[in-house]
Design brief:
Keywords: Repeat, TPR repeat. This protein is mainly α. It contains 14 helices and no strands. Helix 6 packs across helix 7 and helix 7 runs antiparallel to helix 8. The protein is elongated.
């Protein structure tokens, strides 16, 4: 009986040790999960509100400590894009896509990096490597831009239209589409697209300026009825003036330049210089 009791005691001790090990494993697993959550949260902060260069340094350091982790490689590439270091971002995205754990989205991002560095054939190749079933806003936005660069206008229009339908914030792609139409000389279509972009994002100055260029190209020198600050109004008058002068409507251009100078709340050097140049002709 005593032997049995001793064995039972050892059994209880073993069970207790087993239970303790399980508890320690559970705690360790829980801590790992917390660390993953904390790391993911910090990564999000670095890619959104942190200083861009600080984010680059953070992910570069994380990669040195954890080489080969595709999530860190991906975030490092994104941070480089955010910091405007596009040439370096190309190399970073190439490294990501070479990783066996890379995704179709990574290839789309690589195409975007190529576009930012004007490497259009490489962008075409990166997009061709994306499965046709991968239908995302960024994929079609980049497809449109590459088609534009290759002057494949029908394809560009089709891709822009698809991209517009795949986002709730289409102002940017509508502005790009409008600029494509502007460069082709389809000024009426460009004007409509810029106006639509402004309906979605009334504060987008680039679209306002492009809208004025489209109108000026049609010899419509009236400012569009869109929200604008006094400084924006001065800049748009200047853009209209240049459009008029380009089309040899010199008197109209001079008047618009004078309006721009008078409207601007601060000294408008470019408009004043252009006005002086006209005065000597």
């Amino acid at each position: 009986m005593r032997h049995i009791t001793i064995v039972a005691g050892f059994g209880l001790l073993a069970l207790a040790a087993c239970g303790q090990n399980r508890d320690e494993d559970a705690v360790r697993d829980a801590m790992q999960e917390v660390n993953v959550i904390d790391e993911a949260g910090l990564s999000d902060v670095m890619l959104t509100v942190a200083d861009p260069e600080e984010a680059v340094a953070y992910f570069s350091r994380a990669l040195r400590e954890n080489p080969g982790r595709v999530d860190l490689e991906r975030n490092y590439a994104k941070a480089l894009i955010r910091a405007g270091r596009n040439t370096e971002a190309v190399s970073a995205w190439e490294k990501v896509t070479a990783n066996p754990q890379s995704t179709a989205d990574d290839r789309v991002e690589l195409a975007g990096a190529y576009i930012r560095t004007n490497q259009w054939p490489q962008a075409r190749g990166a997009l061709d490597a994306v499965p046709p079933t991968h239908e995302t806003f960024d994929r079609y936005r980049y497809e449109a831009m590459v088609a534009d660069a290759q002057e494949q206008w029908d394809k560009a229009d089709s891709y822009y239209e698809i991209a517009t339908g795949l986002t709730t914030t289409p102002a940017g792609v509508l502005n790009n589409w409008g600029f494509s139409k502007l460069t082709r000389g389809d000024y009426g279509a460009a004007e409509r697209l810029f106006a639509e972009a402004l309906r979605h994002e009334p504060d987008m100055f680039t679209a306002k300026n492009n809208l004025v260029m489209a109108r000026g190209a049609q010899r419509n020198y009236d400012l569009p009825v869109v929200p604008m600050t006094q400084q924006e109004r001065a800049q748009l008058l200047y853009t209209l003036a240049l459009a008029a002068i380009k089309q040899n409507d010199i008197a109209i251009g001079r008047g618009l330049l004078e309006d721009a100078v008078e409207t601007s709340p601060t000294y408008f050097e470019e408009a004043s210089r252009a006005l002086d140049a006209l005065g000597t002709t």
